Amino acid sequence: MSNPDLILLHAPAVYDFRKRAILYGPIADGVPSTPVFEMYPLGFFSLLEHLERNGVRVRIVNLAARMLGSEEFDAEKMVRRLKPRGAFGIDFHWLPHAQGSLEVAKICKRYHRSTPVIFGGFSASYFYEELIRCPEVDFILRGDSTEEPLLQLMKTLLQVRRRRPHDFEFAKIPNLVWKEEKDESSGEVKVRVNPLTHVPARLNKSVNNYFPVFKSALKYRDLKSLIPFHGWSSHEWLDYPITPVLTCRGCVHNCVFCGGSRNALAGYCNRRKPAFRDPELVAADILRTTNYTRAPIFVIGDLRQAGEKYARTVLERLKKKRANFENQLVFELFDTVPNPREYFELVAESVKNFNFEISPDSHDEKIRAAVGKRYKNREIEENLKWALQAGCKKFDLFFMIGLPFQTCESVMQTIEWCGRLMKKYGSGKRVVPFILAYSPFLDPGCVAYENPAKFGYKILFKSLEQYRAAMLSPSWKYALNYETEWLTRGEIVDCTYKAGLRLNELKAECGLVDRASFEVTAEKIRLAVELTSEIDEIKKLNDGTDATDGTDGTAQTQHQKMMRLKPKLDLLLNSVINEKEGLEWPAARRSLSLSVLRLLKAAVTEHFKRGG
Questions:
Q1: Tens-digit pLDDT profile for residues 51-106
Q2: Torsion sign (Cα): 28, 29, 30, 31
Q3: Which helix (H) or strand (E) holds 329?
Q4: Residue 89 belongs to what domain range?
Q5: Please, how many CA atoms are within 13 Å of residue 423, restricted to the half-sphere of its CB?
Q6: Is residue 467 part of a domain?
Q7: Could you say which of 302, 404, 431, 538 is the most buried, measured as most Cβ atoms within 10 Å of its Cβ?
Q8: pLDDT band for position 210 (50/70/90)?
């Protein structure tokens, strides 16, 4: 088995999280992964497919999931054993990876000094000027669609493996940030920034095809390193391989706190308008996936973003094959549907099992409008009514803490409104609200981050180094990068726990959670409150004494006290205020264990069909 040309590594948010005592809090309660953020970006799939199709061999290694899966797994040892012919690629997409991604890059350089390290992702694109100065980073590819630039870079690196590359060979690659050879006299390294010009207008290549990824896992006999997130609930991802189907890159909306909004992506990715995948291809992607798995399929991006005709085309294509699949399909709504009865009835005619989710953020229409969402509560209720009447299996609603004009009193009013919605529309436990603090960071690049005073925010960190250090804070309270005119960081934390307790009570009253689950969540929140108070006291320590080994005595004492809390802190690593089971959708359980085997079989078939 020959070595791959490129190895894509996904780091944990904090590299040595197994040795550190940190109260991560509920920062990952709204996603399937843990606060280690072990789920790698969807871009890994499209990068692998595009490069493999063009003769560059790629392997994915999810170090974060492997580290979560086993205390014995030695990530450094594995990186030392890896031997890519061309380069290591490390995603720095989500800002919480500011510490972990750089630590993994350092390990790559420790054992593979001459092997280039390439960074990419939203955060790498935003912080490229600071990131490229890190000695462990050789290249950065900016933008949200780097499949083709990465292919060009890899071909160049593979061509010059045995000689010193010429600068002109890198200068022609779009979106690339790179370093020239060090000046021997001054010792300075000159940074070159190529124009960010590769911004595809369509999304019709290299997405939503997962067979090449499974083929890669077969080739390198390493399915464990492919798993996108470590399962902490009643079943592992291998038994519940939820499959995403991407409809676009970019967004027509401009929510002020979102790093993927229209203005944000225009600023650091040079994307002026969304790139949509043709609706016929989206429907074909969904139908192809149903041939190999009965697990849920998550359709990423509101189908109506590109217009009603686009959404109707996808649904009409699915309608023709409706009888052939039982999968739960999950659709996003970025705003309310203006013709809810007609739309949800069309969805029901097209898909047997469907689910929806929307993020109203607050019950207060003034607050919702301030963040860029202008739909009304009566419109939300109309959508709930007609979706459920059409047969929607589950309708999730996400609410946030840390918004403009929002006080804790307002947050608690939002929770009571959630209770009324569950009681009014929640027959069969189908209306499921979630409350989340906007954490750990307000997204750099978003409208509010770039214009904080206008929206009542105070941004506490600006540099990449500050974010790297923030991820090592003893509590998420001290990692938050913002406070508002209405809530301090401490008040955001306290309000989050208070809201979580009340929402948990309401879910129990409405039958969404059983007594045992209610008590588990309540106990977790109480423990989080207790640990927050203890950590606050530890942070206050300032006894002025020096340790005998010359180190700061206060820091040493703080470390010792934090490590004594670690067993309790680790109890909260999965979730705090929202149990992960609430994020799942019903599935055909009998056949789920065969889903991955079917995908592997399909990959083998595809492998031999194309002659290996």
A1: 999 999 999 999 999 999 899 999 999 999 999 999 999 999 999 999 999 999 99
A2: positive
A3: strand 328-333
A4: 6-203
A5: 11
A6: yes
A7: 431
A8: confident
